[in-house]
Structures
1.
Amino acid sequence: MDADAARDKPAFPAASIPLTVRVQAESFDTAAEIAALSHGRSDIGALVSFSGLCRDEGGALAALELEHYPGMAEAEIRRICLDAITRFGLQGATAIHRYGKIAPGAPIVLVVTASAHRKAAFDGANFIMDFLKTGAPFWKKEHRVDGARGDWVSAKDADDSACARWLR
Amino acid sequence: MDADAARDKPAFPAASIPLTVRVQAESFDTAAEIAALSHGRSDIGALVSFSGLCRDEGGALAALELEHYPGMAEAEIRRICLDAITRFGLQGATAIHRYGKIAPGAPIVLVVTASAHRKAAFDGANFIMDFLKTGAPFWKKEHRVDGARGDWVSAKDADDSACARWLR
Amino acid sequence: MRTVDLVYFSWVRERIGRGEERIELPDTVLTAGDLIRHLKGLSEDHASALEHENVIRVAIDQEHVDHDEPLGAAREIALFPPMTGG
Amino acid sequence: MRTVDLVYFSWVRERIGRGEERIELPDTVLTAGDLIRHLKGLSEDHASALEHENVIRVAIDQEHVDHDEPLGAAREIALFPPMTGG
């Protein structure tokens, strides 16, 4: 399915649960996204947000460049979020992932989860991040301050193990 | 130690780590607090926020009233945050807890943690919330829509077990 | 005999009917647990508030303590039910 | 023979030297794994990019599949290294 179809498709089995998924080059307003998920609602007891930022690696990194697979990136994140909504009974979720060149200190990814209770919101955000890291088609390349040819970041075995814990 | 002393005391063994602890009646700006913790820094890779909101319990709840022990409430939260900073190597933490009457949909508590890596930020926020719930001197009383005399919320055994997991 | 300031919170406060009081402590009251048992003899309200001793939490000078903790030179002692913040 | 669109990402794309290409597939190429082995015969760049077959991930029409997945009526097949987003 293409990205537009994924965006418009009702989220079964959680059709009435607010879900926002965006893949974009521009930055985002973490505050506004958190507010949007809880605005006007009094059934939410817990909101968890995770922001992943570009670190400068002790000053060595000039920027990260994120390549992505247009269409599939959004579809895959949407699948992961729907899994999380069903599995943890979330009352809402937002996931935004950027691509392109990102400077140190700038945000790369945002996940927000809403639930009646704290554990579900924490677990949901962690689950989404675990599977997003290993399943969403993004690749990071480092641009170094010294101008040396950047390297593609290697995938970590730890990321796969992090996913495995949800299968226990 | 009284609240003012706690506020001004340098945070040993993490003297240079930004730590903000506030106990207040007024609401807070989640967005601004998250931004404040990461502003101008490029060594942070992960920011986690937890917001605890007042649920309306299916429309039955008019408000929660939070009583607290002035001075000790802030000192205790500060102790818990310093523990978390040391234990998880956090690069910053913010904890804000309100008291007084809180309407459904409004925030009660905010915890924000910053770290180089995701796991430490998630674990730090969870740890702070676990110990804050069982150790910070706050008590919730329910005010019901039907005007019936409100009850004090009972402490949950589950909250104690949540703390116990960190001792394993 | 010595003087201490007591503070109460939540339903302990409501049942005793006040948020704080200053009392004289006999020299036989050595620990937090001794204090709870002593207070139960002061009035029916105190007895009702502190009936289930094991659920009463104690803080001495704003730090949590167990019931077997000596009161020492405590200036302010707080009694309250299990906490329900967060 | 049938026609499929291939898309490449990250160092697979860099080593092959292009982001996409349309190729004719012999009828003997049935699975994603077959496709990888077939592509390695096309050029030195393809062989270099796909040298370590077990690290190459495959998506058929934008869904992840294992190497033993039949290509079926695939229109777009993507080859890429392990993902490093988040």
Note: Chains A and C do not touch (no CB pair under 8 Å).
2.
Amino acid sequence: MTSRYTRRELMVVAAAREIRDREVVFVGMRLPLLGFGLAKATHAPDAVGLFENGVIRDRPAETFIYTMGDPPNIVGAVACLGLVDVMSLLQQGRVDVGFIGGAEVDPLGNLNTTRTSSSGALTRLPGSGGAGDIASLAGRTVLIMEHEPRRFRERVDYITSPGHFPGRRRGGPATLITTLGVFDLSAGRVRVASLHPGVTPEQVREATGFPITIDDHPPATATPSADELAYIRHADPEGFWTGDSMKSG
Amino acid sequence: MTSRYTRRELMVVAAAREIRDREVVFVGMRLPLLGFGLAKATHAPDAVGLFENGVIRDRPAETFIYTMGDPPNIVGAVACLGLVDVMSLLQQGRVDVGFIGGAEVDPLGNLNTTRTSSSGALTRLPGSGGAGDIASLAGRTVLIMEHEPRRFRERVDYITSPGHFPGRRRGGPATLITTLGVFDLSAGRVRVASLHPGVTPEQVREATGFPITIDDHPPATATPSADELAYIRHADPEGFWTGDSMKSG
Amino acid sequence: MAFDQMIAAGTVAKVIAAWVGNVAGGSGYGFRRAYEQGQPRRIVMEDHSNFTVGLALKAAAMGLPYLPTFSGLGGDIVRGHPRIRPIDDPFGGPDLLAVGALRPDVAIIHVQRADAQGNAHLWGNLGLTVEAAYAARRTIVICEEVVPEAVIRSDPNRTVIPGFLVSAVVEEPGGALPSSVQGYWRRDFEPFLAYHRTSRTPEGFQAWLREWVLDLPDRPAYLQHMGQAAVARLRVSDRRLAAEANFAP
Amino acid sequence: MAFDQMIAAGTVAKVIAAWVGNVAGGSGYGFRRAYEQGQPRRIVMEDHSNFTVGLALKAAAMGLPYLPTFSGLGGDIVRGHPRIRPIDDPFGGPDLLAVGALRPDVAIIHVQRADAQGNAHLWGNLGLTVEAAYAARRTIVICEEVVPEAVIRSDPNRTVIPGFLVSAVVEEPGGALPSSVQGYWRRDFEPFLAYHRTSRTPEGFQAWLREWVLDLPDRPAYLQHMGQAAVARLRVSDRRLAAEANFAP
């Protein structure tokens, strides 16, 4: 990480690049929300964003929002439907890409946000929210995680958001964006796509609780341009989501 | 029929009397719509009416309507939802009574509005509309028919709107209002509740294509009061529905 | 009535509907000739009740192969039906029916206003409009007015169809005539009566088809043929505005 | 957060939810203590995704024993779930899950305005509000304003809950604070952060409970305890009105 941008800002840029123009995106809060806004402001002006509470937007809210139900996220929305309506569109296959996070991930891209005993004691997490639905039903999913050994597990304790599995109807994890790099999950295993500037393969191996294949000279994740940073800092002026201490899933 | 009121006006009054106060009523067009309005204006001020297109009203439209989707039926509605929404409420069991009509009826209260060969040749009728749903799902149903031998059949050619049958989940035909009388169907057979003034048991037997039991001295259907007639003529000023030539189901 | 006109014109191979007729008179003569005599061509008829056809569209809208219902049990509509079959309740309750998804190739819907992206505001009578728009492979929105996107965004709860479901937007004021559009056009009832009379014979229908379809190149010509006086009489100029809804954040 | 508060107060025996936490910080400490340590009492947890809990309510709202879905296949939420089980597609497609109906005893919902009969106008964020109101045995509507019925009737498409489903109407301005109400109240984010901090320990929670619940007899006292300045800051005084919708017939 350089002094010019935080690792989370880099992750927002990586998230934005997962969105293609004209795609329908299932947007989460935090980094994906910023990534959606950034994609709209740059290479994907005609992308459309769905929120699990029923909101459909084709541009980010005018002001900072803490939750997707906050009034500024309604103002200027193209539609404000119910949860079942947008989930129905998701189930229909109308959503190209969805973003989800978790406390634990495994090589198949399974995510756990329900409960874990990885620390020895039982820890209860908040639960699925819409993540399990997005994982099941989106055209592809992008996973966003803090890269720590206890979070990268051979097998997650509980599959809240299913990754690749036999008989999957559509979709599945395409990309994993972490605090250390960007990984391709589309083939059902974890392959390094790029490492964040300054991150070494050894660091990644040590932070990953399962064997991982890394090419000899993996490319570096593209760094944020000045315009991209300007956008992010305008959207998250106090670094609530992109500051130094990222909150998990 | 006397000169003071038409037989259809009498039927509207009979229909209104089938509605109790505070009931939720699935309203059809024509006579049931007038009956609902009349009940509201008299003994059932707190009844609520559902229309199959999604409209919910607690008073009749201000002006005459030809169809339930006509703009005056939206103005002043308490809610205007979709068809599936009101049908869902019907399926939930939230509707106390529904009104339906048909081209043919049989002793179990089965109604046919789909197709018949009673005249020798095949005749196609418009179909169920919402009638089959009301027959299936309302707390009870009131049937409204022209009383003619070819319409009162031992077994209808096609059951569009099911009457009494083994395994019925709820509801079923309660009352049949015809151009000749009012009949109780609640026990799964046709029993005369009242004959319209001037109608003889012989007339009814001749006009009914199946055996029918009539008590020795059946009561006469209560005639419309001046207030009731005034209401009906205000609501249907040109006698479109209550004039001399009634249209079938 | 539109069903009947298309059938009588010989453009329809199959009808999937709960009701085919004329709100003015009941019977649709074109439908009857096709169904009873195969004139001008045979049609296949898939009969429904309002709720089952609504559920068939809703199933497609929800991305499901079917939806369950209790409606129709004990009747003939669902007997041997190509899209409806009996199923068990997996939780051990009474038997149900499964209504298979109906996914139209095209849905054509008329709304009051839409923006150029197809985000559509609709109010008044809803019926099955929203389900059809969600279910169809392609949805064409016809509107009274194409409005600036700020109008749509001022009230996202009024957007019943998000633009990303819409293939084309057509600005065609009066495009729904002789049917009504809440706040824009009254129903013109006379054409329903006239069509009912004239369509009684194939010759009458052909005369109607020539006069009202074949000889009129576009909608302005249609309105001109209706006559200025009729158009003026049907156009809504009163205002009964919805109560204010403040979306300020 | 309300979930967490009720659980930590020991008033909850069972939770049926997709997500239990605090929008400010993720974890709900009261929920964690109950789930992990049985403090102050054991709770039974029925985990869902947003869509499956939505479908459970929707099934009850539609009067059905279940609704099918593809969401959750391949994951652990649906494994051995008391309300979700695998089913066949009766039309021969891929396997599905059946989500059993969830019928709450009471739904408590907050809307902008309602008339004295409970006909309720709601705009902005919808989520699962409508499904809950339809599904529950009793629905209590809390509103910012009880308005004359003419206000509700001016815009029947805004009436998301018809009054005949409503058991009680409560006029309680600010009753949703610290959450937002579109057009009336901004979200007060600070209490979410403060609760997150203080609820980390049982003692902290008890202090919170005393200060914000037990020591405040009613909602006016709650608002007074918030302080005039906070209330003034949160109250929306701007106006961003929905575009006109003309309902004239």
Note: The mean pLDDT of chain C is 97.
3.
Amino acid sequence: MAPRPRSRLHVPHPPARPGDPVDFSYVRTSPAGEMPRPEVAAPVATLAPLANELVRVLGDDHRAVGAWDPHLEPDVLQVGLRHMLLTRLFDERMQRTQRQGKISFYMRSLGEEAVSVAQAMALRPGDMLFPSYRNQGIYMVRGRPLVDLMCQLLSNTRDMCKGRQLPVMYHWKDGNIFSISGNLATQFPQAVGWAMAAAIKGQDDVACAWIGEGSSAEGDFHSAMIFAEVYNAPVILNVVNNQWAISTFQGFAGGEQATFAARGPGYGIPGIRVDGNDFLAVYAVTQWAAERARTGSGPTLIEHVTYRAAAHSTSDDPSRYRPKDEYERWPLGDPVERLKSHLVALGEWSEERHAALAKELEEHVTKSWKEATKFGTLTEGPKLDPDLMFEDVYKEMPPHLEKQRAQLRAELAAAAAERGAERG
Amino acid sequence: MAPRPRSRLHVPHPPARPGDPVDFSYVRTSPAGEMPRPEVAAPVATLAPLANELVRVLGDDHRAVGAWDPHLEPDVLQVGLRHMLLTRLFDERMQRTQRQGKISFYMRSLGEEAVSVAQAMALRPGDMLFPSYRNQGIYMVRGRPLVDLMCQLLSNTRDMCKGRQLPVMYHWKDGNIFSISGNLATQFPQAVGWAMAAAIKGQDDVACAWIGEGSSAEGDFHSAMIFAEVYNAPVILNVVNNQWAISTFQGFAGGEQATFAARGPGYGIPGIRVDGNDFLAVYAVTQWAAERARTGSGPTLIEHVTYRAAAHSTSDDPSRYRPKDEYERWPLGDPVERLKSHLVALGEWSEERHAALAKELEEHVTKSWKEATKFGTLTEGPKLDPDLMFEDVYKEMPPHLEKQRAQLRAELAAAAAERGAERG
Amino acid sequence: MPKMNMIQALNSAMDIMLGRDPSVVVMGEDVGYFGGVFRTTDGLQRKYGEQRVLDTPISEQGIVAAAIGMGVNGLRPVAEIQFADYIYPGYDQIVSELARIRYRSASEFHAPVTIRTPCGGGIRGGQTHSQSPEAIFAHVSGVKTVMPSNPYDAKGMLIAAIEDDDPVIFFEPKRVYNGPFDGNPDQPAVPWSAHPKGEVPEGYYTVPLGKAEIVRPGSACTIVAYGTMVYVAEAAARAQGVDAEIVDLRTIAPLDVDTLFTSVKKTGRCLIVHEATRFGGFGGELSATIQEECFWNLEAPIARVAGWDTPYPHAFEWEYFPGQRRVGAALKALMEAA
Amino acid sequence: MPKMNMIQALNSAMDIMLGRDPSVVVMGEDVGYFGGVFRTTDGLQRKYGEQRVLDTPISEQGIVAAAIGMGVNGLRPVAEIQFADYIYPGYDQIVSELARIRYRSASEFHAPVTIRTPCGGGIRGGQTHSQSPEAIFAHVSGVKTVMPSNPYDAKGMLIAAIEDDDPVIFFEPKRVYNGPFDGNPDQPAVPWSAHPKGEVPEGYYTVPLGKAEIVRPGSACTIVAYGTMVYVAEAAARAQGVDAEIVDLRTIAPLDVDTLFTSVKKTGRCLIVHEATRFGGFGGELSATIQEECFWNLEAPIARVAGWDTPYPHAFEWEYFPGQRRVGAALKALMEAA
Ligand SMILES: Cc1ncc(C[n+]2csc(CCOP(=O)(O)OP(=O)(O)O)c2C)c(N)n1
Ligand SMILES: Cc1ncc(C[n+]2csc(CCOP(=O)(O)OP(=O)(O)O)c2C)c(N)n1
Ligand SMILES: [Mg+2]
Ligand SMILES: [Mg+2]
């Protein structure tokens, strides 16, 4: 007789570790164009398949197919391609400048550019974005000058954060982009609160928030879902499932037994699983979710199936925990290449135009960097006034901070005097 | 043209407030015996209907029907009836003693007795229970003398908590019942940790935890589900949906758009919605979930659909927020009456036997109370030694607590001397 | 002047602010239809509607986070945490987010959230309905932390807190909701109607945050207290016949050091009293700060009376509570030291 | 004697305890296969298997809660919180549960959990990788809070913490993981191999919790410090030519008052140094306690040097950090006061 099965601690294993052959058989995909596109006001219970299958528009032949095709004009697609490419080139350059010791830290979004770019494009400027640290593409779409982003990375005298935040923790009030936090997941329920306020005020805008699949294990995810459901808040909640959270794969966030999108229906919120590397599909589901939110049908949870092609950050070395060639074999391809091929297939793009665009953008990045470094770098040029350290803790500076500011001034003056004495 | 729909803040409304006619049309029930009983090792994906329908065994004719009938012997049912009735009579008496000022606080489980009693009976003594404050029935099943519970309620010299906890916050190491916390939801993920340890150690025991539907909005619920899914922990996670969380109805916990059981499948954990007032159904699903856990198939989420017939606690007056006659019209009836009627229908019980049992248990409660009060009450009799306040903060008392204990001793001695002087 | 207890005064503050400012919203567990477990929000939902006075799910994390999001979107949320003992699930949102948003965004964003929460013991609430966690907020730059001790201050400070563009943690010492409490549970309860601080204007007024109040002038020593302890300190000073100057701190952070320093420099002796556990409590900060500035004026060591360093035990409420006897003994020792 | 840096010493402590005691488990985000973002658990999963060294979901609440449940079921979990800045989501589980289980169950249940977490600044980590939140744990009765400052203590204290039947919050000042740091970022880094405290026995030993260490005897004043600040204090004292007695606190709670009192009674002057923000920080408790006992011996007010009361700003790391200059100035003022 076979021994009675027993409980044992299950430990999720990624399909492959360094040295193992890459295996993405666990990633369930659906053929492009196959998923129906329900009405935005359809009852949640009827939307279940969206959470388990994969919404895809771009087929292997690079054509857009099916009900989810957003039918975008070629010029819109070209803009999308430009933003994605700019994001990528910006990332590459900033990565290099970090390696050169010019900025202290950086995080790339390589391979995930479609998520930020397509989503930001599908939304209205008045919609409020609550990004994670890997959504720089939204800044490209909303048109923040690269110089401004670079000055933040440099913590220089034009740093929007006045030197207070790690690189990449941007914010942009006028662009309706909320301040990024180093604490994972905290902004997911804040976005819901923002959306609740929009609904209370009768505003027509929606909130849109991003979280990594790893971070979705935090309690904040649950708080966001509960509040979104209870108040039917006009919010789009995105889980960016890029398969990895530093060294742990998505199985450690609960992705082995169910999709992340599937959590939605559990709360009575539609969940959509989308090919995150398919610009058109991401655009389409975002449009659909925004329309739902804007017309009173409430929140949507979107899982973007994508892959973190880059290291987690400049402090990370992924070759320690995953095969080097995983990204090459990632079944959903590269978002930039896929949109490019689509445009080429449409006869609206070419290798030449692509190369020219890349060159133009490279130059833009280079020029912007030159401009940004004028305002100072980590090691050279003008520096932020340390007095700034004491500002904005409160709206008005309380006496104890004034006192500490004076103390620091004295300290720095003494140091300067000493250096002067040494030199003199 | 109709105005374009707009988002607005949805505010959940209970079906009825004081003065309104009771309306339980929102409670979806299924006929008894209708749900199939899948194999415990069935893939989660195939179990979806369990989360949305309602597992019921006892029909309106008081017969047990369907695949979920646990086929219990009449003597087992009689024991269940006894435990439920004892729980109810104990609750009633303690409620009265609180009204008389003899204990400071009490919480009844009226109307929900089947949940605790049937579940505890369906588990093994070695299984570890993590109850909420409304699970006193498990103490009846596991045989803790009433006197011990009463001494806790009285914070007297035999109080298992040594005077440190509010009434009802029992614990029982030898009975494998964990200490109740005043902080909602915290023990849900602890139960998962316990179960993980059981799996690590190769123990054959499972953990079982309860949470109110209102409390399931806390982040701890999510932590529990994530850890349970990731490690396939041998744990039963129960949401007791008794419709109310103090003054807010279950819609404020996310119950309007989906069942609480439905959250399970979102995490890849089976969810079962069960008639919480049907002793047999609760027993059966618990047995099923325990079997799953014990044989390595992992966690189960059970939603018990029941009704909090009593006030939230002795500090609460539900007539302020819900119709007085809601419980009378609760569609799932009274768990004690239903099991009783079933036994009568089986020819294994009678009104006479019931009355005799009630009398016996009443006397038992009375006798126990007399016994318990010998060890002191709030106002009279022996008192716990205040020195105990400083013990068990740490395993060994650190010097600063020794010092504080000495200080208190001096303070009390001075007070006693003063009182002596006044009297003398 | 109308008489109000503290609950009524707090209710009136929210009523007035809901009426004056359409961006004010009130939210929390059971605060809407029911009017709060202490009835502090009674009638507000009926008056201002469900879009302004919201019941919430039981998730302190969600409550704080939603309030932040609302604040960022231009509202002024007044969020209730049902008991201070239950604020911990929201602690991350408070420390990492609410307190930091203005700083990290260089004031582009801020969230003017007020978090009201009943604190303190003396109501037979056991360890999870009696805590005084002010110290763990005092230590957090970016939030203001206050604790009024009477109806007049409660109303004026709550209005000030709601109007403040910085986040405020607003502790309500629930033992004095209905009347001042001198630490003796056997004495008949005194209602606020019998106390001058129970006289509360109907209309709008503010009591500024960041200002302590000398509730009893004196010359022999300074007692620094807040919340319920103000009354215990008064009673103890009276019982000991010590001409103590009693400072009701009212705001814990930012601290009104001027009032403290002036008083201690004058009296030369200082006793600090709080309900929270002693070790690592806010009394340490008070003592250290006062000592740094007033050292040369001190005639005796600064003393502290506080809750014992144990959880708040249900059965030993009065042995635990830093009552008149304990405060009195400390006062006596303070006056005798030299 | 082998040389170890602090990471190696901590790794060795866990290695030894995993080897000695089958109930020890190590868990946390990225601690398993990867060996931790600071590599503190490197190699442990390979050696002891996945059932003993667990990667976890990103949920500090879940990590603490699961560790509690495991502890209640007889294991001794050593849980890592990746950065102390991320401990707040687990704060409720620590305060309301971990710290309380023994008390409320009258010792029927307890959870011998150790929570390791890297803290402190000086590594260009910005506001969310630099915090020193020890004060908010010091205030919690029922947990022990420690912060070793060197490899020898780190290993001995981690073993002691794991063996302790009470929960321990184990702060690791990450700036000194690789070598003592005197506060001057421009000086070449000193490795632990060049420091006597980098000599660490291979095998089992303990350094008791609750005991401070005099790391430099002296007679002119007492400097109380812990973590990275021990080295800054040493350097400042050297630079100022002050014969300071330096106490490395090591355990924050329960506090070794005897060592403190003896030292301050001897020297008559005291400076307290910590990285955490000043207001409401642990320095307040230290100052208050020392003052209460040593008042009559004090020749000058007890002084504090700490982080400014702002979030930890990325660009102003060295203007923020309480470095040699700030400590030196305070020391000078302390010695001149009279
Ligand atoms: C509360 C909290 N815990 C831990 C961390 C450390 N941390 C930073 S990023 C990261 C992984 C996040 O992974 P994921 O959410 O999947 O996002 P991705 O990096 O893949 O975009 C971790 C653990 C943190 N920043 N905040
Ligand atoms: C963390 C926390 N928040 C709030 C409370 C106050 N509180 C006690 S019971 C309760 C309602 C719980 O309702 P539910 O979970 O449905 O359980 P039920 O009382 O219906 O059994 C609330 C809000 C608490 N004890 N802990
Ligand atoms: Mg990820
Ligand atoms: Mg309930």
Note: The first strand of chain C starts at residue 24 and ends at 28.
